[in-house]
Design brief:
The chain contains nine helices and nine strands. It is α/β, with parallel strands linked by helices. The protein has a domain of 120 residues: Rossmann fold (3-Layer(aba) Sandwich), CATH 3.40.50. The longest helix has 18 residues. The N and C termini lie far apart (38 Å). It binds adenosine-5'-diphosphate (2 copies).
Length: 227
């Protein structure tokens, strides 16, 4: 279970962007998170992926509460997560050929053995073929780079996936290919998914259930509280 309990989070303590939000994803479940731009979905997704420390509330991953937060959670807990963001170019080291980009988490966690085979297997899963793996991010399209980012997110075989607007910048056929790759991974491994998006049709098709960000908070809306 991925359990977000009464999470308050943001960038300054005085004005949190996520206020008292609770959300659970069951093992193997796919949950879509929908809401207007700027409402705090990405911030909650980063908390869920253990990349952003909440100001209040707790994150419990497979029964283990995250206790030793710095700005992020300890790496041992983070490696249970694969994360894909909307802006592939911001999270991709421009110097690394796609093959190295995909292998980066293996290198970072000291698991180089069998790395080339794993990269080749994942490249096939996400549909990266030919010489694309030797090219650097600026030499490939947004869609090709996002395929590599998804492969990187899967390389450590995470039990949980967090996809934040993964396909928002992509055409229909690349979107379909990436959603299919996530589905194949999930049916092979039983991994759970939190998918953030703004397209209800896509999320409904992709996920077991779709929740509205604005329905998750039990906090009194600030305007009402101010009155
Ligand atoms: P969404 O994903 O729903 O569009 P975000 O979580 O990205 O929403 O943003 C929620 C609010 O937090 C917005 O007002 C945004 O400007 C602000 N915000 C997001 N990231 C940062 C940041 N790194 N520093 C300061 N404010 C931020
Ligand atoms: P740091 O050394 O800064 O703690 P990390 O341990 O978070 O870095 O990760 C090292 C590299 O591995 C990062 O640059 C990141 O690109 C990649 N990485 C780590 N965890 C993930 C993940 N869950 N999904 C995708 N890439 C990851």
């Amino acid at each position: 279970m991925l359990d977000l309990r009464a999470i308050t989070a943001g960038y300054t303590r005085s004005t949190p962007v996520v206020r008292d939000v609770s959300l659970s994803v069951a093992p193997g479940e796919a949950v879509g998170l929908l809401g207007p731009s700027g409402c705090g979905k990405s911030t909650l997704a980063r908390v869920a992926a253990l990349l952003h420390r909440p100001d209040a509330g707790s994150v419990v991953v497979d029964g283990e509460p995250v206790r030793r937060w710095r700005h992020r959670a300890p790496r041992e807990q983070r490696t249970a997560f694969g994360v894909v963001f909307q802006q592939a170019r911001l999270s991709a080291d421009p110097r690394l050929p796609l093959a190295d980009l995909i292998a980066e988490p293996l290198r970072a966690t000291g698991r180089r053995q069998g790395s080339a085979d794993r990269v080749a297997e994942l490249a096939a899963t996400v549909g990266l073929t030919g010489d694309l793996l030797t090219r650097r991010p600026h030499e490939v399209s947004d869609g090709q780079l996002q395929r590599a980012c998804l492969a990187r997110a899967l390389v450590l075989r995470p039990r949980w996936l967090v996809c934040d607007e993964m396909t928002a910048m992509l055409d229909a056929s690349t979107t379909a290919a990436l959603v299919r790759a996530v589905e194949d991974y999930r049916s092979a491994t039983g991994a759970g998914l939190l998918a953030v998006g703004h397209d209800r049709t896509l999320l409904d098709r992709w996920c077991d259930r779709t929740v509205d960000f604005t329905s998750l908070s039990t906090a009194v809306p600030r305007k009402a509280a101010d009155r």
